[in-house]
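Bench log. Compound arrived from synthesis this morning; before running ITC I wanted a structural hypothesis for how 2-acetamido-2-deoxy-beta-D-glucopyranose sits in the protein. Inputs:
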Amino acid sequence: MSVLSPLLWCLLTLLLVNIQSAYARSVKRSLPEDGEVVAHPTVLILGGGVAGVIAARTLYEQGITNFVIVEARGELGGRLQTETIGVPGNQWVVERGPNWVQGTQTGDGPENPIWALVQKHGVKTVYNDWYGSMTTYDETGFSNYTDIFNESGDVYDELTVVAGARVEQQLVDLTARSGYSLIGSKPMTPADKACEYYQFDWEYAQTPLESSWIASSWGNNFTYDPDQGGFGDANEMSIDQRGFKYFIQAEAAEFLQPEQLMLNATVTNITYSSEGVNVTLKDGTLLVAAYALCTFSLGVLQNDDVVFEPSLPDWKQEAIQSMATYTKIFLQFPDDFWFDTQMGLYADTTRGRYPVWQNMNLTDFFPGSGVVFVTVTGEYSVRIEALSDEDVQAEVLEVLRAMYPDTTIPEPTAFYFPRWHTNPLFRGSYSNWPPSFFSGHHENLRATVEQRLWFAGEATSIKYFGFLHGAYYEGLDVATDLALCIQAGGCAGLAHVPEIKNAYPYVV
Ligand SMILES: Cc1cc2nc3c(=O)[nH]c(=O)nc-3n(C[C@H](O)[C@H](O)[C@H](O)COP(=O)(O)OP(=O)(O)OC[C@H]3O[C@@H](n4cnc5c(N)ncnc54)[C@H](O)[C@@H]3O)c2cc1C
Ligand SMILES: *[C@@H]1O[C@H](CO)[C@@H](O)[C@H](O)[C@H]1NC(C)=O
Ligand SMILES: *[C@@H]1O[C@H](CO)[C@@H](O)[C@H](O)[C@H]1NC(C)=O
Ligand SMILES: *[C@@H]1O[C@H](CO)[C@@H](O)[C@H](O)[C@H]1NC(C)=O
Ligand SMILES: *[C@@H]1O[C@H](CO)[C@@H](O)[C@H](O)[C@H]1NC(C)=O
Ligand SMILES: *[C@@H]1O[C@H](CO)[C@@H](O)[C@H](O)[C@H]1NC(C)=O
Ligand SMILES: *[C@@H]1O[C@H](CO)[C@@H](O)[C@H](O)[C@H]1NC(C)=O
Ligand SMILES: *[C@@H]1O[C@H](CO)[C@@H](O)[C@H](O)[C@H]1NC(C)=O
């Protein structure tokens, strides 16, 4: 960071605050009578996450300014959200959602566009060493299985290599669990399972059995492997106390006008035809537009939080498949009794029971914070969301007592976890590609319905599904096509595959 930058930050923050209060004013001005049409833009961008903001920027750059972003929450950023935790005098802004720029840049190879924005807007990040700074535990306490841990990384690499060979040979996809078996990896002990979990579930937020072998390998390669066009293997963790979300809010502040944004505006109905799209909000407001670009999560599309009229066609519904959940559980303690590495791994006899731990009380992270967090995923996340905070806290403390049998574990001074799965604006944390999802499904997830209803978001990215940069590229690419369509006075939109069929008929 240059010497000038504190001043620049001040200016930028001022700008942001001004623009945000201007938004607030514009939304207030337009509070409608029930059913009143308050806006007639060319495009309604539904959702103000990374995909929505980048789509808006793309339209703006193409000279199309008659658009409105419609967002249910009170701020932009979507899943980029913060929570302030801790006792008075020792409070920290932590990330409920995304925390890392995953893959940055290798040499002068392709740069992760999120990394570019993070640098442009001066968001503070630190390199997070996922593989070389690890302490391992099991139900008896400290237990050194670093050898198994290191081996699990090599096994994971082999999994992606053999998946690539299947693609070359045009063999069908299988579950990643079948893949592991075919390469001879059959974890038996809690330590084997915890290490496999760390390589796989901790990234995809679902088990190998629930995941596509081929797509999970793409998910790894296109982000992390420079030989496959990926950015690089580094993970940069945001520790910025303005929140990771700052990069996208500051980017929006550079081009977005107050009348182009409606916050606190929850969509309930989307009515579409080849003539246009009407969107109804919870308060009865009607928005009438020529086009809509829907960036809601796969979880929202899977549920009935938003009613499409007519219902989405079968080919679209069939493509709306798997939404995973990833849950970070934050604790603050009066003093630290845990590992001094960045990462800790706990092997329970139940696979996925409070396995991955992170130490934030380190010089480069939140020194003196006493903050540590543990992550659970998939069905385990769904399970704990149904429990009270007190019950989850008691389980987490029980695990810490197993990890540290000779230490008296104090009560935490703070305890927090977000419930992504039950949140009606998300219904999970990010998409994961199941083994029943074929290339045609992917095309259909992205495809336009009735020329007017368009889709974008992390889930529509074939290479980067699940990631912030997936949302970025989809916002960019789909809005680029939409702009061309508008400039041409209309178009068929992105094509779909009417029916996805087997290569051979079933023989029974
Ligand atoms: C816990 C967690 C950890 C993650 N970790 C990482 C990470 O470290 N690195 C990484 O690259 N990615 C990570 N991700 C994934 C990343 O957050 C997403 O890929 C990305 O934010 C998706 O952006 P989007 O624009 O596609 O969707 P969203 O951000 O979901 O944007 C859609 C918007 O639509 C709004 N909306 C929904 N329903 C309605 C409605 N009815 N009316 C109006 N508005 C509505 C939502 O409020 C939201 O703002 C993580 C996600 C989670 C949840
Ligand atoms: C959105 O709602 C919140 C909570 O009611 C409120 O504090 C905020 O000012 C609102 N923002 C806008 C832009 O209306
Ligand atoms: C764990 O065991 C490995 C040998 O397998 C050794 O190199 C390493 O130092 C040990 N780590 C600790 C923390 O004891
Ligand atoms: C595991 O790998 C790390 C490097 O990532 C290395 O420092 C360590 O010695 C290895 N440990 C064992 C037991 O192989
Ligand atoms: C993933 O990358 C590896 C190593 O570069 C490569 O051998 C493999 O074919 C790739 N897998 C897929 C599914 O693309
Ligand atoms: C929205 O959808 C619900 C459920 O189908 C329906 O009852 C309601 O009339 C719809 N509202 C509008 C404005 O279309
Ligand atoms: C949207 O609403 C307008 C005004 O009520 C109506 O004329 C139009 O037919 C509607 N369009 C769609 C796609 O439902
Ligand atoms: C954080 O770590 C430092 C250095 O190890 C230690 O002195 C301090 O007590 C820890 N703080 C808390 C609140 O745990």
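What the model suggests: The two ends are 66 Å apart (CA to CA). The longest strand covers residues 267-273.
ITC booked for Thursday regardless.
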